[in-house]
Structures are given as structure tokens and as C-alpha cells.
């Protein structure tokens, strides 16, 4: 399986702007710029997209890990924060809140750690990845 995205940029790094499009068209000429990345401008940025990818992948992997352990979550909500420091993406912080009937806190932590270590995006990100996993 392969997925594609296209970035188009016009102008200088600080004054220019661009847009991003994805194969699925979920992003379709979505604006990004210096301000949307480093200030409070309108549009997306690479770090936000990395956070969305990690939150989505981890959450789906956790669903599969829980299912393999015999549990079906009522809900999983994952927040991901990507840190950019001095021009380097340094950290991905995952915080998941879950409602999983019948699971013990210890088993949930085990499943969450498995998902963190084994989701494809975690494996692709060569940076510190932290996890806080809480049952509701």
C-alpha cells in the first residue's frame, strides 16, 4: 500500500505560502505558511499533520491490541503533541483517555504500551515518544 501527498510552495520561506493536497482529497490545496507553522496563522503545518497521523495510528493500533486481548473499547480519545525545538522535531507525546469495559488498569497499561511501541507511525518516528494512558 502506498499513499501520496503533494506540497506546493511559492515565494520565500517567511513571506511565501503553499498548499498541501492528499490522495484522498481530505486535504485539498490546504493552506500552510510560515505563520501557520511558527505563529498563529490560518492553515496547517507539518507538525500538526504528524500529530494527527500519530494520534490516529496509535488509537487504531490500541483498538486492535485490545481486541486481541478480548476487550472492545466503548471509547478511545488520543491527543498527540509534537514538539519542534530549534528546528528539530524532538518529541511526540500521546495522551489517551479510554473507556474499556472489564479491563484492569494493569492490562490496559500493557495494551497501551504495546500499541505505542508497535503502531506503524511510532516505528517511523525516531524521537522520544511518551504515553499517558488513563481509564475513565
What does this structure look like?
The protein is α+β, with helices and mostly antiparallel strands. It has two domains: 5-38, no CATH class; 46-135, 2-Layer Sandwich (GMP Synthetase, Chain A, domain 3), CATH 3.30.300.20. The protein contains four helices and six strands. It has helices at 34-38, 46-68, 105-118, 120-124, and strands at 5-10, 17-22, 30-33, 75-85, 88-99, 128-135. α2 packs across α3 (105-118). The longest helix is centred in the middle third of the chain and has 23 residues, at 46-68. The protein is elongated, with a radius of gyration of 17 Å.
Query: Which strand-content bin applies to the residues?
Result: 25-35%
Strand order of the largest sheet: 1-2-3
Largest sheet geometry: 3 strands, antiparallel
CATH topology of the largest domain: GMP Synthetase, Chain A, domain 3
- Low-confidence region ranges: none
Tally of distinct domains? 2
CATH homologous group name of the largest domain: K homology (KH) domain
Can I get a quick summary?
By secondary structure, the chain is an alpha+beta fold.
Amino acid at each position: 500500500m502506498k499513499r501520496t501527498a503533494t506540497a506546493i510552495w511559492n515565494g520565500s520561506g517567511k513571506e511565501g505560502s503553499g498548499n498541501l493536497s492528499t490522495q484522498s482529497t481530505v486535504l485539498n490545496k490546504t493552506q500552510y505558511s510560515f505563520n501557520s507553522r511558527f505563529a498563529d496563522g490560518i492553515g496547517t503545518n507539518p507538525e500538526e499533520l504528524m500529530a494527527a497521523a500519530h494520534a490516529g495510528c496509535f488509537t487504531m493500533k490500541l483498538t486492535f491490541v485490545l481486541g486481541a486481548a478480548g476487550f472492545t473499547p466503548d471509547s478511545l480519545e488520543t491527543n498527540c503533541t509534537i514538539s519542534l525545538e530549534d528546528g528539530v522535531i524532538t518529541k511526540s507525546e500521546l495522551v489517551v483517555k479510554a473507556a474499556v469495559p472489564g479491563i484492569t488498569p494493569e492490562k490496559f497499561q500493557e495494551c497501551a504500551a504495546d500499541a505505542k511501541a508497535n503502531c506503524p507511525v511510532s516505528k517511523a518516528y525516531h524521537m522520544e515518544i511518551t504515553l499517558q494512558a488513563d481509564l475513565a
